[in-house]
């Protein structure tokens, strides 16, 4: 098989696996909503959002650090150095995650006191606190696998295996409470992390140095130690946390003002709307290296053409799903159960935000791959601040709809800012013909 055919096949497999990962996340939400009902699933989804944000915070920016350094070392054929870098980051993030998990365990009762959720919240948070550690570990291992060019392994560990473990565990245990699901989640994160670790030898079994890579020189002259890792990850820490807050702050803030059944409607509506954007996440795997290649080789015309064509194609592919959510929101939310139909309006609002996200294309990757990370950080900061401020203003007044509006405004604003940055830095509009 020729090189081009191999690349095409690899890209197609990567896109397919990422789409399966996105579908598995939706199926998990659907499964839990129908198993637990609106009230109890709202408790679990709130706890899950909090654990996800805390896990990102505890990883202190090591995700992209692992991806960067393991990519350089693996491309240089340095398997020992690759695994050593991953090990150092796992120790660093694992230690921080343990402290955060212990803190969450002991403050869970206080969190419950200030929310409008049921008395199961504190027990659910305690059940999920070990899962915070497991989630951090499996996320870093997945980043390491991606750095080793094992995209299928990476996506399987990060997006598919945990969802499958939780669905299987809930079905076998016939779990009927968020507390039980919380324990299953924690066990699932540990099993997924162990599976990822087991896959590492297979990922490093065949290593061919990429002798034509410029990064190879950097790897050969750089002994990556703890200080280099800290110097890399600390600047990324804030961006990671802000990015999570921009996405999930409305759900977290909603827990302090709206009932758990409305919170579950918001959570399922948001996760359903994300289906529109999964095609973008899948295609980014293929587009990101091409953006970097065109930019650094001075092929600005090809860069602009690829960016615009991808935007048009993504919008066309996502349009049927977007229209379905706009025309049949009540029926779609009814898939989760009759108690979820009240989230139809929220689904429409969030679907609009996701469709705008798709129509603006891979703006984040486009800026980061062309050396304009500062613009990406600025837009992320503005988006997260807007999400928090607007949520605090609208949720007490409008409840569920206010949370959806706040999330949509922050997402649309962030993508528009990034689109303007692309025009300023690279000289073209992504949405133009």
TrEMBL record:
Alphabetical keyword list: Cell membrane, Membrane, Transmembrane, Transmembrane helix
UniProt-listed InterPro entries: MATE_fam (IPR002528), Poly_Biosynth_Transport (IPR050833)
Keyword Transmembrane set for record: yes
GO cellular component: plasma membrane
Membrane topology: Multi-pass membrane protein
Source taxon at top rank: Bacteria
TM annotation in the entry: 7-31, 43-61, 89-107, 127-145, 152-172, 178-200, 313-333, 345-367, 379-395, 401-420
Coiled-coil boundaries: none
Cellular localisation: Cell membrane
Gene Ontology terms for molecular function: antiporter activity; xenobiotic transmembrane transporter activity
PANTHER family in the cross-refs: O-ANTIGEN TRANSPORTER-RELATED, PST FAMILY PREDICTED COLANIC ACID TRANSPORTER
Protein name: Polysaccharide biosynthesis protein
Organism field: Rubripirellula amarantea
């Amino acid at each position: 098989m020729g090189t081009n055919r191999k690349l095409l096949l690899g890209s197609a497999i990567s896109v397919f696996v990422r789409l399966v990962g996105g579908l598995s996340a939706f199926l998990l939400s659907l499964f839990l909503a129908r198993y637990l009902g609106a009230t109890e699933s709202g408790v679990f989804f709130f706890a899950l959002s909090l654990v996800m944000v805390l896990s990102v915070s505890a990883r202190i920016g090591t995700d992209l650090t692992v991806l960067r350094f393991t990519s350089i070392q693996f491309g240089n054929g340095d398997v020992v150095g690759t695994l050593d870098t991953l090990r150092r980051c796992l120790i660093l993030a694992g230690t921080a995650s343990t402290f955060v998990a212990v803190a969450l365990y002991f403050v869970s009762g206080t969190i419950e006191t200030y929310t409008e959720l049921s008395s199961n919240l504190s027990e659910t948070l305690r059940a999920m606190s070990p899962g915070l550690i497991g989630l951090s570990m499996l996320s870093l291992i997945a980043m390491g696998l991606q750095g080793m060019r094992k995209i299928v392994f990476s996506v399987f560990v990060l997006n598919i295996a945990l969802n499958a473990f939780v669905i299987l565990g809930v079905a076998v245990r016939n779990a009927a409470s968020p507390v039980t699901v919380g324990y299953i989640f924690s066990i699932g994160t540990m099993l997924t992390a162990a599976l990822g670790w087991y896959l590492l030898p297979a990922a490093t079994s065949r290593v061919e140095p990429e002798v034509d890579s410029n990064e190879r020189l950097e790897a050969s002259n750089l002994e990556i130690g703890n200080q280099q890792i800290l110097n890399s990850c600390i600047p990324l820490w804030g961006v990671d946390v802000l990015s999570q807050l921009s996405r999930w702050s409305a759900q977290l803030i909603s827990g302090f003002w709206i009932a758990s059944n409305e919170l579950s409607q918001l959570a399922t509506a948001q996760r359903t709307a994300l289906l529109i954007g999964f095609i973008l996440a899948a295609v980014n795997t293929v587009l990101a290296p091409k953006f970097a290649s065109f930019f650094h080789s001075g092929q600005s015309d090809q860069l602009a053409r690829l960016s615009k064509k991808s935007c048009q194609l993504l919008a066309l592919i996502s349009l049927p799903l977007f229209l379905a959510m706009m025309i049949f929101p009540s029926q779609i939310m009814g898939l989760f159960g009759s108690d979820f139909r009240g989230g139809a309006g929220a689904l429409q609002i969030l679907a609009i935000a996701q469709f705008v996200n798709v129509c603006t294309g891979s703006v984040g990757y486009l800026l980061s791959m062309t050396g304009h990370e500062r613009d990406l950080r600025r837009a992320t900061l503005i988006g997260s601040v807007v999400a928090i401020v607007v949520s605090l203003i609208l949720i007490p007044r409008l409840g569920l709809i206010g949370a959806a509006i706040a999330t949509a405004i922050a997402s649309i604003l962030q993508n528009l800012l990034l689109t303007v940055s692309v025009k300023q830095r690279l000289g073209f509009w992504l949405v133009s013909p």
